[in-house]
Input
Amino acid sequence: MSRLTQLFASKEREFFDLFEEAASNSVRAAELLVAILEEWPDNATAMREVVVCEQEGDRITHDIIHKLNQTFVTPFDREDIIALASALDDIVDFIEEIADFLGLYRIEAPMEQAERMASVLRDAARQIAEAMPRLRSLKDIHHYTVEVNRLENEGDRIYREAVASLFERGIDPMMVIRWKDIFERQEEAIDATERAVNTLEGIIIKNR
Output
């Protein structure tokens, strides 16, 4: 292998490493959110660790963009690299926002639908993390895409149920607004997992 070929191969590995790191970071953040809701309000450590995950996600995204700007030949299209990095970063950003809202809004106890949506989000993030290593060899990930899409549909169903329940129980209007904000961020986080896996599958199909 020539030195030039070795250089290109090294650059490709760096991108793959960073994407796998970003996917693992999103799983960690999603697992922390599940723990926060299950143990609310007694898990201050997990709340702090979510912030660390968000900062780590920003760092990884910055590293990807930095390497993209320094690399003449990339393993796949630049716009696809940016789209995948952005979707993975969005997952963690939304999770951090959800955790922040729980504290800012002084939520006394989590609604059952919020816990279910958090579990859906965690499961979707895990599917992406399992699929991500297949990017290196452009192996088919259709099974993972189907499962994340199914989970996204489940998240949408729970979201609609959750919002409807807010207006059925005669809850204080301010509490309705606060919980609607939280549910919307959870839905957006789940949507970001679907966007990430669809982008990932698109890259694989395009580059085979």
